[in-house]
């Protein structure tokens, strides 16, 4: 069983180093898959196919938490990619309206994972937000 896991891990590591496959793996998740480092792609892809993943995704889809968003009483930073194909940018504007004391940043040419797609910009913004 451990041997199978090692073989799968090595196969995945080889696959993510191939730009064409990396692009297909991340298509729809990030705006420019070819810009994501192979090691980071590996980490993102490692969650796929894990036990419970589909159940967790279904639970997220089935649970409407919007009515609870106004209860958030801490300053909130929302960072969204305009080209997010998983959760449309309209969701960001809805969250901004429902969560008090919110700062919304919508980034152009960015997909579902702004923190991975633009890590330096994201980290700088987060640091500024946390010290303000």
Describe, in short, the structure shown.
The protein is mainly alpha-helical and 132 residues long.
Model description:
The structure is a single chain. This protein has 132 residues and is mostly helical. It is built from 7 helices and 2 strands. It has helices spanning 2-16, 19-26, 38-46, 53-62, 90-98, 114-117, 119-131, and strands spanning 76-81, 102-107. The chain has a two-stranded parallel sheet with strand order 1-2. α5 (90-98) links the parallel β1 and β2 (102-107). The longest helix is centred in the first third of the chain and has 15 residues, at 2-16. The radius of gyration is 17 Å and the shape is globular. 17% of the residues are buried.
What's the SSE blueprint?
Blueprint: H1 2-16, H2 19-26, H3 38-46, H4 53-62, E1 76-81, H5 90-98, E2 102-107, H6 114-117, H7 119-131
Parallel strand pairs: 1-2
Task: Fill in the keyword field for this structure.
132 residues
Low-confidence stretches: none
Please estimate the helix content.
40-55%
Q: Given the structure, what is the number of helices? A: 7
Q: Which structural class best describes the helix and strand composition?
A: mainly alpha
Run of helices and strands: HHHHEHEHH
Residue-averaged pLDDT: 87
Distance between the termini: 50 Å
Biggest sheet features:
2 strands, parallel
């Amino acid at each position: 069983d451990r041997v199978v896991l090692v073989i799968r891990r090595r196969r995945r590591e080889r696959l993510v180093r191939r730009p064409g496959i990396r692009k297909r793996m991340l298509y729809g998740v990030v705006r420019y898959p070819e810009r994501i480092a192979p090691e980071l792609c590996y980490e993102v892809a490692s969650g796929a196919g894990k036990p419970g993943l589909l159940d967790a995704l279904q639970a997220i889809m089935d649970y409407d938490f919007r009515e609870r968003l106004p209860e958030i009483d801490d300053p909130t930073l929302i960072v969204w990619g305009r080209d997010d194909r998983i959760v449309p940018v309209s969701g960001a504007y809805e969250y901004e309206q429902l969560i008090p004391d919110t700062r919304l940043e919508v980034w152009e040419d960015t997909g579902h994972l702004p923190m991975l797609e633009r890590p330096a910009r994201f980290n700088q913004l987060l640091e500024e937000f946390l010290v303000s």
